[in-house]
Design a protein that fits this description.
This protein folds into three domains: 74 residues, Winged helix-like DNA-binding domain superfamily/Winged helix DNA-binding domain (Arc Repressor Mutant, subunit A), CATH 1.10.10; 128 residues, Nucleotidyltransferase, domain 5 (2-Layer Sandwich); 147 residues, ATPase, nucleotide binding domain (Nucleotidyltransferase, domain 5), CATH 3.30.420. It is 38% helix and 22% strand. The chain has 13 helices and 16 strands. The strands form four sheets. Strands 6-5-4-7-11 form a five-stranded mixed sheet, with helices on both faces. Strands 14-13-12-15-16 form a five-stranded mixed sheet, with helices on both faces. A three-stranded antiparallel sheet has the order 1-3-2. α4 crosses α5 and α9 runs parallel beside α11.
Length: 391
């Protein structure tokens, strides 16, 4: 391939890379260097070996060896020489073969159905599938999830490097669901179970965290400080600060859905019971089922007022978080007809009223840029990171 021919997928640089948060040990050096090369090709696009060496800080000898290995693995290919008019031997360009592999991604956020897709490595959807939940929880829900994953694996048109799953609940780094009350899952080794059953690597993470990863890698989220709030069957949030995903010591950072916001001082009616076992949690008023119940049968004016009242409660819950982390923006993910209007406006007004002007006045609150595919894109990032070291 000559330099004047544009590779269809390999030439597409994608988003930004998350800032690494772990110390690199000597025994991990080769895997770390390999991920640096792949990350450069993924985010920046085709480059010469010399370009990669300059960008990553690796020696040319190291880069040449890694590129040779990646070509042997069919992850990278040579694209021809670059003609740039410089004196000397023209540089040979290499690119990541993003079109040669696919990822299966599943989003469990919706309250009525499981959503799944086969995606390319650059986040393009190839095939979509869904399964109605019909009230399934516990083992029955796991069986339905496995069925959907098998269907997607069969529908893939390229080798699948892994399965990514965005699930509600508290999930540790190994993909174990510590607790997901709305799905009836507790201490469930979901990633290990599905890896064994499906025969491909499976990565599971909190749905709000995966959506934040998707917005950061494929979307337009601010890496300096962003919170992505997912509103579905439940309510959660993913937070990226200074280019790193905030996880927390119990892997529960962003669980704002179970912050108590409704009590006798805020509403006349008694607080509603929550799936977590307490009453008055944000989730009891902000989840999609709760919002639909609240607005059912109301006139447009009454519905706007009801949504604004929930937006105020959301703003009360958000203000301390926005202030503590000095966030640049808050992204809402869920049905726009419920979230993008009086609810969002009231939440932003409340946050600004309850924070210092230097923090609140510059805060942006908007709908996520990836719409319904945000969690699917984030689930794909789970696989890219887990299998290729690219995020």
């Amino acid at each position: 391939m000559t330099a004047t021919t544009r590779p269809p997928a390999a030439a597409r640089g994608v988003g930004r890379a998350l800032r690494p948060t772990g110390k690199v040990l000597p025994e991990h050096a080769r895997a770390h260097n390999r991920s640096l090369v792949l990350a450069h090709l993924f985010h920046i696009g085709p480059a010469s070996r010399a370009d990669i060496a300059r960008s990553t800080g690796l020696t040319r000898v190291t880069v040449s060896g890694l590129v040779a290995d990646l070509i042997a693995e069919a992850l990278v290919e040579e694209l021809g020489v670059r003609v740039d008019g410089k004196v000397g031997k023209p540089a040979t360009m290499v690119g990541m073969r993003t079109e040669a592999f696919q990822i299966v991604a599943v989003d469990l956020t919706d309250d009525s159905r499981l959503l799944g897709a086969v995606l390319t490595l650059v986040g393009d959807v190839v095939v979509r599938r869904s399964e109605a939940i019909e009230g399934r929880t516990g083992e029955s829900a796991v069986e339905l999830l496995e069925t959907l994953c098998r269907d997607l694996l069969e529908a893939a048109t390229r080798p699948v490097i892994g399965v990514g799953i965005a699930s509600p609940g508290v999930i540790d780094l190994a993909g174990n669901v510590v607790q997901a009350p709305n799905r009836g899952w507790y201490d469930m080794p979901l990633a290990a179970h599905l890896t064994e059953r499906l025969g491909v690597p499976v990565h599971v993470a909190n749905d709000a965290n995966t959506r934040a990863l998707g917005e950061f890698t494929y979307g337009s989220a601010a890496g300096s400080g962003c919170m992505v709030i997912t509103v579905g069957q439940g309510v959660g949030a993913g937070i990226v600060v200074d280019g790193a995903l905030v996880r927390g010591r119990h892997h529960a950072a962003g669980e704002i859905g179970h912050v108590t916001v409704v009590d006798g001082d805020l509403r006349d009616e008694p607080p509603l019971d929550c799936a977590c076992g307490r009453a008055g949690c944000l989730e009891t008023v902000l989840s999609v089922p709760a919002l639909r119940r609240r607005t059912a049968g109301l006139t447009p004016e009454e519905s706007d007022a009801a949504l604004a009242s929930v937006g105020r409660l959301l703003g009360i819950a958000l203000a301390p978080v926005v202030s503590a982390l000095d966030l640049a923006e808050v992204l809402l993910s869920g049905p726009p007809e419920l979230l993008d209007g009086p609810l969002r406006d009231a939440a932003l007004t409340t946050v600004r009223a309850r924070t210092m002007p230097v923090i609140g006045d510059g805060l942006a609150m908007r709908m996520g840029s990836l719409d319904e595919d945000g969690a699917l894109a984030g689930a794909a990032v789970l696989v890219l990171s887990g299998q290729l070291g690219v995020s």
